[in-house]
Amino acid sequence: MKQLFQHAAVTEGVTVRVAVNFLPEQSRIDAGKWFWVYHIRIENGSDQSIRLLSRHWRITDGRGMINFVDGEGVVGEQPLLAPGASHDYVSGCPLGTPHGSMEGHYTMQRADGSMVDVAIPFFPLAAPATAN
Prior knowledge:
Strand content: over 45%
Structural class: mainly beta
Oligomer: single chain
Distance between the termini: 32 Å
CATH topology: Immunoglobulin-like
Largest sheet: 5 strands, antiparallel
Shape: elongated
Number of domains: 1
Helix content: under 10%
Number of helices: 0
Number of strands: 9
Radius of gyration: 16 Å
């Protein structure tokens, strides 16, 4: 299945694309829990290799509550992307409201040792309306 990336951001030649889907089978709406899965593709369009060292997320729920999530790598990896290479991964986000959003950045290190914060585009988390 070809993934449709709905959101993208470019920082100094590195593109981050995001596709997000609501997962009703993983959600427990009766218990106030909604769950989304997101697929991210990082494309290195720069002229040198770059390693993803850490992630920094800002997750906002439908009440405006903000949760910051910081950690090493992505899904247990610190991928090294050669020029022209890409890295894909899938992760998920639970929320206590049917709507919210995510955005953030990756801290990456270039082959020359310099650091760059690569933007992760803002993307909404929105569960479809359900009949009561």
